[in-house]
Amino acid sequence: MRLIIGYVCVGILALSSATCTAEPLPLRIVSFNAEICTAPGVRAGQLERFRFDYARREHCERVADLIETLNPDILNLAEVTSKEAVDLIVGALHEKGLTQYTGYHVESNDTFTGMDVALVTKYPPDVIDGLPIRTIFSPEGDPTWSQAFSFTEKDGSTVSSGTSLGRNSLYFITVNGWKLGFLGLHLKSNPEDAYSNARRTAEAALAQRVCRGEIVRRGYMPVVLGDLNDYDPDVEDADNTRNPATNVLASIKDFDPARSGAELLNSAMFIPRIADRYSSHWDWNENGAHDAQDVYTMIDHVLLPKEFEPFVKRVFICHSTDLETSDHYPVVVDLELPLKN
């Protein structure tokens, strides 16, 4: 097993993770895929959205603008590709006067895309085993955090393979006495492809193991969030033409098969208007516009402990962003956490 050390990005800690109040404490959790957010002068992977530094800097500025607007307490930020990109975003927030934000980045192990899952937060993470943030990954040949899978090709042949969690981050934050273990995920894309579905299912099995062995074992409650690249059959969404071909969401929500029922719930169930339940925009003809043929799916999720259901105040997806910023929309969860004794 290899635990990768994360780096603290620029920031001033304005809040303590031990801060407690007898009144219910508002907590806004946001999960957002920033679509290959890259710092100027840094080449992290093979995928390149913007070739020139000016466009890369402007992209980071737009992400900072979004954070300024949504004002999250805890932001899970997928598809940021380097510590330098997180530094640039947090630096822009500080220039705006939002000095309570601190950024944390850890290199994932998707060497092709270079995509990582970062944290921007007002609450400093608890230091676990000397680390504020880490990623869980097993190199080839190490079975600790590896999972075998198989799938059937179109010609009927069976192919077997294995995977680890290539893009993830794990961080722990205590809020009003509640010890929360956040597993930020970016799972294998394309829920219409047999190989991708099999690999994502294996990644979900690994996420189950992380929840049990790395979060619950330490006395924390799991919050699983990010770009899970799959649909939840338990929550009706805006696109009724696409049905899940896997049990990815169900297995993550029921991460402990030894217990009765699922341990997590999908916060999307609290979005009152079904037409609003979409978090990604596939611009099929890449014209940068909204067309009738475009695809809008609910593949980004924030999964909460079932015990938090009474604490959910509001959940929505911010559809105010455009394709210039990302092909995903932020999922916003507002909680009111009572003091936990």
Description:
The chain has 341 residues and is α+β, with helices and mostly antiparallel strands. It has one domain: 4-Layer Sandwich (Deoxyribonuclease I, Chain A), CATH 3.60.10. Helices cover 17% and strands 31% of the residues. The protein is globular and about 60 Å long. The two termini are 35 Å apart. The relative contact order is 0.16. The N terminus is likely disordered.
CATH topology value: Deoxyribonuclease I, Chain A
Task: Give the terminus-to-terminus CA distance.
Answer: 35 Å
Quickly name the level 1 CATH class: Alpha Beta
The structural domain count equals 1
Superfamily (CATH H level) name: Endonuclease/exonuclease/phosphatase
Show the helix and strand layout.
Blueprint lengths: L1 E4 L1 E5 L13 E13 L15 H18 L3 E7 L2 H13 L6 E4 L10 E6 L12 E4 L9 E6 L5 E6 L4 E8 L2 E9 L7 H22 L5 E7 L20 H6 L10 E3 L13 E3 L12 E3 L2 E6 L6 E6 L13 E7 L4
Parallel strand pairs: 3-4, 11-12
Antiparallel strand pairs: 1-7, 2-5, 3-18, 4-6, 5-6, 8-9, 10-11, 12-16, 13-16, 14-15, 17-18
Summarize the structure.
This protein has 341 residues and is an alpha+beta fold. It contains 4 helices and 18 strands. Mean pLDDT is 92; it is low at 1-5.
Keywords:
single chain, 341 residues, alpha+beta, five-stranded mixed beta sheet, 4 helices, 18 strands, disordered N terminus
